[in-house]
Amino acid sequence: MHQRLKMALGHYETEEVQxxxxxxxxxxxxxxxxxxxxxxxxxxxxxxxxxxRVEEMKQQLQHYQAQMGEMTLKLxxxxxxxxxxxxxxxxxxxxxxEALPFxxxxxxxxxxxxxxxxQAVERWRTLSQEHDRLQQQYQEQxxxxxxxxxxxxKQNTNQQFLKTVTEQxxxxxxxxxxxxxxxxxxxxxxxxxxEMMVLKEKLQSQLERKEEDRISAQEKETASDKRLxxxxxxxxxxxxxxxxxxxxxxxxxxEKVALEEQxxxxxxxSARLENExxxxxxxxxxxxxxxxxxxxxxxQALFGEKQKEEEIKKLQDEMSQxxxxxxxxxxxxxxxxxxxxxxQVSRLTEEISALQMECxxxxxxxxxxxxxxxxxEEELEKIYxxxxxxxxxSRKLEQLHQKYLLAEAAKDDLQRSLQMTQNKLKQLEMNSExxxxxxxxxxxxxxxxxxxxREKSAFVSEQxxxxxxxxxxxxxxxxxxxxxxxxxQQKAKIKISTMxxxxxxxxxxxxxxxxxxxxxxxxxxxxLRRLLVAQQKATNRWKEEIKILTETTEARISxxxxxxxxxxLRSQELIxxxxxxxxxxxxxxxxxxxxxxxIDRLQRRLSQAEQRAATASQQxxxxxxxxxxxxxxxxxxxSEESSSPGNPAIEANLLPVLHDPSQFRVSxxxxxxxxxxxxxxTSCSFSSGTCTEIMDFARTSSxxxxxxxxxxxx
Length: 714
Prior knowledge:
By secondary structure, the chain is mainly α. Among the domains are: about 230-260; about 630-714, no CATH class. It is built from ten helices and four strands, in the order αααααααααβββαβ. It has helices at about 1-25, 30-100, 105-110, 115-260, 265-285, 285-320, 320-385, 390-455, 455-625, 690-700, and strands at about 635, 650-655, 665-670, 705-710. The chain has a four-stranded antiparallel β-sheet with strand order 3-2-1-4, sandwiched between helices. A hairpin with a 7-residue loop joins β2 (about 650-655) and β3.
């Protein structure tokens, strides 16, 4: 049974080694392979231990068998020597008995002596047969004890094997748990893969959206560039118009001087208007304030025309002669002035309407820019929300946001400038309306004053001299005003040049920012594409790894299932074998009990037979020694302790010394693992003595079945 188990385990080990080599060739390696290797290593270690134990048991059995063979050889030698000595001693004893006188023996020895001798010889034979039979039984018992020892060792090995089987079951359960965990991990990995695929699709859609947004942003940038160019062209046109308006204002001032020379009665009003113009010139720092001066001059020219007409009427009433000459000249000048003023007014109205249209267009553009700004802010917020996790993109977005804030600040400045222009235009309109109302009031007043002036026409002639002097003063003042106007024009030109320079600097800054935006957009698109490629590679690699893991786990599961089935079958076979062995053990134990009882009975019978044989041999020896004088000795004895079960017998031979019958030697043969009896000597020699001394020695050394062949022992 042990050999069969060893063969089965060796076959299983070879199969497992082949399977492991095949798995190492096909699979990439993992936790499952390490677990199977550990199980195989544990199985190989258990198998090697089992083989070593079996080899040790075999060696012990061989050693015991060798010892039993040696003992059997020694027993055969002893029996052969006893038979040879018995044969050698029997012939001289028979010859001596034949040579002895027969008469004395008949008289002395009783008639039953021959019968006792025959009975003693038969008893000796029966005892020798029983001795042989007991030796055989002893050998059988020793073999049975060896069998019991081997069975006990077999039980221990079976228990160890059961322990290993239970450990393997526990390991199999752990492997099952690991397989379940691996399956769960595979499911989690599949879910993660699905999530990654969804994220990949989302990122692809986001990238497409970003590309679309980038294209739209580029389009918006181009549109904004076009709008900036349009704004620059419109600003240049406005500057040109401002220059034209300044020139017109200068012309109007010259006409005003000519009209003021003729108008002397309106000095206070002209002074007030001059003060207002002086204040307006001081306040005018921009190009738009010059338009206010042009409007004021236009109103002054209209007012002057009305005053001129009233003066002409007064002069026609008061001075008929001078009025005819001067009226024609004044009418011509008034007509030309009217035409020029009307043309200037029409031009100014057209310019105001054009400016209003431009303001409306700018407002629409501002509204569009605000809408685009809101759309860009929303897009930036979306991009910022989508790319909060990417730090590098967030930094770029912050830079873009800062650039966008700068653009917004520039837009706000433009809006403020537009609002200022609109406010100034509104103020100009309000001032023009107020001046019209004032002019109407002044016309009414002038009509009322015409009557009074007609009455004062006489007084006018007297005051002409004064007015001429005042005109000279006014001319000097007008020259000062012209100088101030020239200075204001120079300041305006300087401001316009500074504005142009700032505008050019801003244009260069915007162009550099646009280039930076384009570079950053190209870099971000390249990085996003690189990230997409890396992510696609990672997803493909994860898919391949998961496929390999699933295949390896399925193969391991199938192999583990097959191994479990095989181990279950083997465990069932071993359990059946263990049950059979336990039944055999119980049967052997019952047989051992029966054999022990039988051996005890045989030992009791042996002890009784030995006692009887000892008494009979003593009697026969005494009788025989009495009949003989010479002492050739032949003794077989055993110790009293040999009657106890389990102790081997002690055999000894008293070998006679034929040449020197006064001396004899004691030789003994002991069984192994038996303590030597202190009363028995291995060899001894005696001087010639009486038979009683020898018998005493035999009794003291617990010698039985001793025969004496000396005639003097009677």
